[in-house]
């Protein structure tokens, strides 16, 4: 039995030692221009999904699907999100092209199929180890639900909201470069 415990202690110490060596020698590359290792991505995704499933289960959007609410969501999106997630042309900004974890261009790779609560959770709490900020610190739940409403209906907006969406200026890197 004693040998067994010594074995466990030795194994844990070896893992910690290898981790420390990796960190202090720079074997874990710190630049954002590296690709995340599969194990890091798998661990971060598993933790995110488990937390969201627990904390947002059954949540539904309390905001009514009206032009007014969709347009409010689009305006909040334009001010806070387009720089990383693109406008209706789905073209990435210079900023978005440099992230360690790629930010999806939502006009192309949207979240229309995702449960309301899951999208709301991501907006409110952000996504650790990525550039996705926690907006709960600065935007109200009501504002965030309106953005979630817009994201849900992005591919089938009624005309007034669609016109507002198409009006958001492109953030494409070539547009930025031209200034
Ligand atoms: C500074 C950059 C940045 C800003 C600003 C930002 N995001 Fe993100 N967002 C990201 C990144 C990077 C990811 C990808 C994270 C990941 O995959 O783990 C992400 C992920 C997401 C996701 C999940 C996408 C999916 O496929 O599951 C949603 C939804 C989202 N963001 C919405 C928003 C909204 C809405 C706003 C504005 C209120 C916003 N983001 C602002 C960088 C940003």
Labels describing this entry:
179 residues; mainly alpha; Cytochrome Bc1 Complex, Chain D, domain 2; 2 domains; binds heme C
Describe this structure in words.
- The termini are far apart.
- The model has no long low-confidence stretch (mean pLDDT 93).
- This protein is 55% helix and 0% strand.
- It has two domains: 1-30; 38-178, Cytochrome Bc1 Complex, Chain D, domain 2 (Orthogonal Bundle), CATH 1.10.760.
- The protein is mainly alpha-helical and 179 residues long.
Strand percentage, roughly?
A: under 5%
Task: Return the CATH class of the largest domain.
Answer: Mainly Alpha
Structural class: mainly alpha
Q: What is the count of structural domains?
A: 2
Concise account of the structure shown:
The chain has 179 residues and is mainly α. The chain is built from eight helices and no strands. The longest helix is centred in the N-terminal third of the chain and has 23 residues.
């Amino acid at each position: 039995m004693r040998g067994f415990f010594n074995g466990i202690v030795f194994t844990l110490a070896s893992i910690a030692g290898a981790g420390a060596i990796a960190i202090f020698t720079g074997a874990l590359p710190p630049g954002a221009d590296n690709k995340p290792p599969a194990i890091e991505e798998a661990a971060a995704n598993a933790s995110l999904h488990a937390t969201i499933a627990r904390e947002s289960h059954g949540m539904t959007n309390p905001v009514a699907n009206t032009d007014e609410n969709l347009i409010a969501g689009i305006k909040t999106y334009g001010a806070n999100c387009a720089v990383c997630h693109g406008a209706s042309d789905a073209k990435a900004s210079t900023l978005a092209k440099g992230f360690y974890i790629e930010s999806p261009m939502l006009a192309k790779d949207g979240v229309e199929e995702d449960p309301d609560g899951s999208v709301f959770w991501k907006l409110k709490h952000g996504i650790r180890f990525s550039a996705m900020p926690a907006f709960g610190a600065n935007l109200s739940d009501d504002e965030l639900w309106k953005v979630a409403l817009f994201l849900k209906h992005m591919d089938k907006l009624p005309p007034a909201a669609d016109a507002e969406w198409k009006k958001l200026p492109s953030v494409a890197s070539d547009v930025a470069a031209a200034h």
